[in-house]
Design goal:
Length: 499
């Protein structure tokens, strides 16, 4: 039998998953990497550590599945989007730590843009003016990291999102590494024009980024290169799919048609709605982004709502407050109380994303009384995930004119049955989880598999989707009424905190 592999590089960990033709997992391995926090609002990763972890999880998954690299007909890559790496193509070494999508250090630069520049950026890219995206991060690296400017002058510097860094290393690195990215990742940089699907001269000028250091933009499903036989696979395998993580989840949830949507619960929450080949520009704080582009076929677009802190709020309770020792414990703790005890937790640790886009917001816990316990806070944290998701989906319905009747969900938090029931109650719609909850890796595998003809077409992939669990809303729940109204009051308390 032949198999397809998927390298899934996320914000907190990297994993490699191996799938068979039926889309079943036959092997996987996952490792975390460090979160580097040099200053308030700064979030960095060691790009070299990420490359090391990638090699380790590839080797580990092959060993677990008792397979050789030659048993794979291709691999796909999916990645945390917006996170930026700059490296020296002569040495293969990163010129600095990667700046992560959560990082807010470029707020001052963005606040200095003129209204005309802001309007140009938003129209051409479909994105908001926020530190979240890659363009201002590249600008910061060029201006502030010693040696970067000289490396650019010497023709040694390459920059890209994590997919580009992994593709370059997997395909040979300093010898003959391929420097490319796909349209979904490029659409998150503030540098690509949605209408032309190419780097835009005017945007490059605004962010002062030279085009020669950027990767070539290609489709999401094609053979970009072959793996270096000296690398972790031990042979040359087609690298045939690249998708940003949220777009990969759309593909993994087989949302190929206009009007289909999914919400991924990870470090942050990301809801996407397929708008087909039409670019729909949001009037309600959402983003317009590329959904996918398969080979020579037209690009499909999506509306996206991004919530910065959901799963990472649970990590915060575990690591900083230490009220739980593992993320899985939060469900049992929250179930020990029947409600939130009047506590509302808005985890705006790095500002608010959609639909507010407020960099001045910071996290709050409101409604505290002497009766409050850690169980109430745990429950409030789960409710925060659900309320933030509802706000994004409400905006999506208004923009698209489509009323959602069901939501497909995936990601780690979907294993939390209490949270998913709360989500159904908050939104008053059915919530459906697929058999394979980690659809991000599956989507990258699908993109690669289509390119190497492992799967014939998207129709074959749609036939593989299976439901694992469904949650129906309770009409008696007050989460959708009183709870949501009070949540909106709590949001107001977060605003204007940073001058």
């Amino acid at each position: 039998m032949s198999y397809i592999g998927s390298l899934d590089q996320g914000t907190s960990s990297t994993r490699f998953m191996i799938f068979d033709k039926a889309g079943r997992v036959v092997g996987q391995h996952q490792l975390e990497h460090r979160q580097i926090l040099p200053k308030a609002g700064w979030v960095e990763h060691d790009a070299f550590e990420i490359w090391q972890r990638a090699q380790e999880v590839i080797t580990g998954a092959l060993k677990q599945a008792d397979l050789l690299g030659s048993d794979l007909v291709g691999i796909g890559i999916t990645n945390q989007r917006e996170t930026i790496v700059i490296w020296d193509k002569k040495t293969g070494h990163p010129l600095s730590n990667a700046i992560v999508w959560q990082d807010t250090r470029t707020g001052e630069f963005l606040s200095g843009l003129t209204p005309t520049q802001c309007k140009t950026i938003t129209f051409k890219t479909g994105l908001a003016i926020a530190p979240y995206f890659s363009g201002s991060k590249i600008n910061w690296l060029i201006k502030n990291v010693p040696g970067v400017q000289k490396a650019i002058t010497d023709g040694r510097a390459l920059v890209g999102t994590i997919d580009s860094w992994l593709l370059w290393n997997l395909s040979g690195g300093v010898r003959d590494g391929v420097h490319a990215t796909d349209v979904t990742n490029a659409s998150r940089t503030l540098l690509m024009n949605l209408e032309t699907l190419s780097w835009d001269e005017e945007l490059l000028k605004i962010f002062q980024v030279p085009i020669e250091i950027l990767p070539k933009i290609r489709s999401s499903s094609e053979i970009y290169a072959k793996t270096d036989p000296a690398g972790p696979f031990g042979t040359a395998i087609p690298i045939a799919g690249i998708l940003g993580d949220q777009q990969a989840a759309m593909v993994g949830q087989v949302c190929f048609d206009r009007g289909e949507s999914k919400t991924t619960y990870g470090t942050g929450n990301f809801a996407l709605l397929n708008t087909g080949t039409k670019i729909v520009r949001s009037k309600n704080g959402l983003l317009t982004t590329v959904c996918f582009k398969f080979g020579d076929q037209p690009a499909y677009f999506a509306l996206e709502g991004s919530v910065a802190v959901t799963g990472s709020a649970i990590q915060w309770l575990r690591d900083q407050l230490q009220i739980i020792s593992s993320a899985a414990e939060i469900e049992a703790l929250a179930e020990t109380v029947s409600d939130n005890g009047g506590i509302y937790f808005v985890p705006a640790f790095s500002g608010l994303f959609a639909p507010y886009w407020r960099n001045d917001a910071r996290g709050v816990i409101v409604g505290l009384t002497r009766a409050a316990t850690k169980a109430h806070l745990a429950r409030a944290a789960l409710e925060a995930i659900c309320y933030q998701t509802r706000e994004v989906l409400d905006a999506m319905s208004v923009d698209s004119g489509v009323k959602l009747t069901e939501m497909r969900v995936d990601g780690g938090i979907t294993a939390n049955n209490l949270c998913m029931q709360m989500q159904a109650d908050v939104m008053q719609i059915e919530i459906t989880r697929p058999m394979i909850a980690e659809t991000t890796a599956l989507g990258a595998a699908y993109a690669a598999g289509l390119a190497v003809k492992f799967w014939s077409d998207t129709k074959e992939l749609k036939e593989q989707w299976q439901q694992s669990r469904r949650w129906n809303p309770s009409s008696a729940s007050e989460l959708a009424t009183t709870g949501f109204i009070t949540w909106k009051k709590a949001i107001e308390r977060t605003l204007n905190w940073i001058d």
